[in-house]
Amino acid sequence: MLDVRRLRLLSDLERLGTIAAVAAVHSYTPSAVSQQLAALEREAGVALLRRSGRRVEFTGAGRVLVRRAATVFAALEETTAALAAVREGPAGTVRIGAFPTAVRTVLPAALVALGRDHPALELSVSELDPVAVPRALSDRRLDVGLLHDYDVVPAVIDPAVESVPLLEEAVHVAVAADAPFDTFADTREVDWILAGPGTLCHEVALRVTRNAGFAPRARHHVDDFDAVLALVAAGQGVALVPELATATLPDGVRLLDAPTRRRTRIGYRRGASDHPAVAAVVGSLQEAVR
């Protein structure tokens, strides 16, 4: 019989790419991970990996096993959820990951409702970029996480993660109140405040402007939307901001329509949707948005 813990190491290797990365996630040594994977091969009775220089590659059997592993992990989550449902109500620790604007606007009301309705829950919130949420869920560092994408940059589906819609919002171009233009197309000749390279927000700005036929003239790179809006008010450039970030708009800033929308979803490990604690958090987040 295959050892589930070793199967998870194999799955993580496919996801992370190197034995060293798998070892870091699990607080093992690379040698220990290699030994566990060798033991899994003996259990399977077939080679799962082959060496290619300093790297390892999956054999055909290894790729078949990794694909099947997702079904095994989902079944384990479903079983855990079924056992938890036998208890009287949602209980235990739930680790929630959310991006900063959601932490400020959506989570407070949800946390208050959860504390009132489900006092046996122990809630822990971490600020996290949505791009990092799928990995944090797979690594079991999170139980629930907020994901988002834009119509110009659709989400990449992670087979280990399930999700349900939370909200869809407009995206605006924040400009100085006295800026001498009124449309998105007018921003082609002005300075831009972009998010840091490698972030989803940075890629969205590049895609939206490219679709409009120009490249943004980047002057500043800032990730925090409050700081971005302060710079816009100071005449330092224009920037894309989602609707959630405009709840408290500083003086000296006005908003123009941008040709994209942002969609936020609530993610959790595949098979965990019926877990009482996960379902309670999902319900409270959706109610907070309503």
By DSSP, the count of extended strands is: 10
CATH topology of the largest domain: D-Maltodextrin-Binding Protein, domain 2
Give the overall form: globular
Mean pLDDT rating: 91
- Given this structure, which CATH class of the largest domain is correct? Alpha Beta
Enumerate the spans where pLDDT stays under 50 for 5 or more consecutive residues. Answer: none
Taken in chain order, the helices and strands follow as HHHEEHEHHEHEEEHEHEEH
CA gyration radius, whole angstroms: 23 Å
The number of distinct helices, counting runs of at least 4 residues, comes to 10
- What's the architecture of the largest domain in CATH terms? 3-Layer(aba) Sandwich
Helix content: 40-55%
Terminal-residue CA separation: 48 Å
Biggest sheet strand order reads 4-3-5-10-6-9
